[in-house]
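Q: My labmate handed me this sequence with no annotations at all. I'd like to see what the chain might look like in three dimensions before we decide whether it's worth expressing. Could you predict it?
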Amino acid sequence: MDDHDKILLVFDLDHTILDKNSDIEISSLFQNKDDSIYNRDGEDMYWGDVMQKVYLKMKNEGIQINQIKALIQSLELTSNFPELFKFIRSNNHRLENIIISGANTLFIKWLIEKHQWEDIFSSYFSNPAEPNEEKLISINNYHKHTCPSCDGSQCKKIILKDFLSKQNYRYKNIVYLGDGSNDFCPSTILKENDILFPRKNFALFKELYKKNKINMLKCKVFPWENGLEIIEIIRENYLL
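A: Here is what I predict for the chain of 240 residues:
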């Protein structure tokens, strides 16, 4: 098959692949849950910095990294995503899949290991993280950037454009699945025959339809609630 016939699927992680937000769910490990731990202590604190504060607090409370791993691997996938991944496997000659996430690389690694997704995702991009004796988990912001629309830890549009620039061929189409406001920026580079899947009633959906940002996009837009809807629309549009 000609590489030019390939379709690139770009997945967000939290509230997309996972039904809930992994960074927030780990707070259930605290003896006394306090959501204020996620507050930013100034304009120069980005999401990676916030999560480093969370991990340090966990370390101080005696929480072990194996507890975090077990919790992350127990998180439920969004409705019918197992069926979506089965569909992807059956069409792996046409579909290539990557993750671009505001979470971290360690959580993604654990999830790929748990669900045996090594044959599904060719690459993943997120805030670099690894086990650390002093910090429990050491996390860094993905990169420095000057995009005014995105959190300082990363701009998904820059990540996607950089990924595409390093491929030795152009994908026939790009399909982007996300839920958050940080998924709008990469959506602006999608073309007429590409597809954006914003999860219904989440932040990206609200920006598109309540703030009329959908008028800024060239691509097709299909709000979704479960993986079966995504399968059906991909089949209809790309004849899979």
